[in-house]
RNase E specificity factor CsrD
Amino acid sequence: MKFTRMLTTKLTSFWLMSLAAIAFVFLLSAMMSFVQLTYKFQQQKVAELETMLVDQYQHQPDWDLEAWLPPMLLAYNAVDFRLTLKDEVIFAYEGNLTTQNAMVYDHVLDPKSGLRMQLTLTQPFEHYTFSWYEILILLVGVLAVAALVRFGYLWFSQQLDGIEELALRSRLILQGKHEQALATPGNGKPRLINRALTKLLEELQDAQKERGRFDKFIRSNTFLDAETRIGNRLFLNNRLDALSHNQAMLAHGVIYLLEMDDLDLLQQSQGEAVTKELLNSTVNAISQLLQTQANSIFARRSHNQFAIVVPQISLIEADQFASKLLKICLSQPLPEVDNSDNFFHLGCAYFTAGDNAAQLIEEADMALRAAQLQGNSNWFMYDKGAIDEEFAKGSVRWRSFLENALVQRRFFPFSQPIIDSDGNEHHKEIFTRARDNQGALIRATLFIPMANKCGLMPQVERQIIERVLLLLSNELAGGVSNTQTNKQSAPQIYSINLSLDSLMSRAFTQWLKTTLLEYRHLTTRLIFEVSEDIVIQHQEKLQPKLDMIRKMGARLCVDHVGQQVVGTYYIRECHFDLIKLHRSIVRHIHLRPENQLFIRSLIGGLYRTEVQVCAEGVEVFEEWQTLQILGVGAAQGMYFSEPIEAK
């Protein structure tokens, strides 16, 4: 771009100098021609005088020079005149004019007789004065030339600006900023090339959208049920693996198995269209109810059985939710079939942290069989289990605990490194932990759902961001002191998760903007992570907030990619710098070719972009090795390091 600007500047300058030189030469030539013509006119008058003197000498021996020659010499503005015949002065004249640069004409009029004339005249312009009319004409001419030169310069600059705009668009294309290049078509010239670039960029944008739709198609056919468009059995297994570690559940929750007993008989008696309508209406109603439960899972296990997993829910709420599910199912318009009051059955299994994931399905299935034995459409909870002691705190006690923790600043950052393919640390992700009055750590899976319910997540994340900025400031000060001993290390980069409540809070975003401006020397060492499902559901509202963070100098990351079956178009539209694959995609990746296909498709869709692909939840070497082969550039998980407190 700099080279192109220099080239156009040189061309414009050369053209301007050439045009100015031509105008100058033209004026100089006109002036010289006028001067030369004036001198020639004076010479003609002298020649006429010579002719008259020769004619008088040859035809009139008795000269009467005194009668007619002095008035003529006076009209010629003669300074001096001598007419000699063989060195004898016949006539002499001296005018009353004086000059320093006189024009002397010394000509022999008649060589035979020796008649000679010496005439001294003033310069043609010595006694000439310009009138206002002549000055006006000259000034108009000069201004006209200057105006034409200026017009030509502006026109030529405008033409070269069109080339400059083409160069700018080309540079944006080479940098991968296709959306920006398409949004600024400008007035590039030649216009044919500019229109061709616009058309190619539009086709490229359509191709990228088509690639995103193709990725979604691959994921849909891999993880979605073709008839109901909800998760399939493979999707359920992946999500359950993500909620567990070594088959031990990481948090509490409940799993439901919903079965339509006589669905096959209904299809045989009423037809496929009626069955499909019942399935779609039931699935849509349950999906609408699940929107109130964060991170819930809804999948189809078999032709007539569905699985629902709701994490972070208490036992009382699980019972209430089961009643709502059964009520929704019974409210569906069921065709007249035999035993219609015994059509829906719901089996529930409540689990806590540490419960075996594989055993949960068996417990839920046993609960489902127990519900079927009761004879009517109903639900049954297999085992209420031991309720997590920490979770048993009521909402009032939780709010009191969280508010005290905020006041006493008992939220602490824990960091886990993200390792790149070369074995170097790419950055560290910050996890939030809280301490109670006895100093014991409170798991994030416990207090974050309650903080969301109490509306305290913006304050929690604000406190964590302040602690991270303090860490970076201390590291920067330590780096400055280390320069004296030549032990300065690479700058540390931290990634911080932002919740939907924080991003939608005007007070939080305003505080974040002010803080990033205050610590603008540290913003390049910050990465803010947002969950994929949040971006998909609220992209239009979050776009200005994400753009503000990016313009401040921080980078953006979207995590939990692959948790939902959605397109990837949002990655380009929101200008994310990193994406993190969800642990359900990474878990046992070396044994799951369908997950490998998804990652290959995702990375292929991001080809020629600067988006880096990371993986979270890597636990064994085989997973990391497979991810590297697939092209994933970095990863985090227990295989590399556990989260440790950042101090």
Residues 577 and 610 are 7 Å apart (CA to CA). The chain has 21 helices and 21 strands.
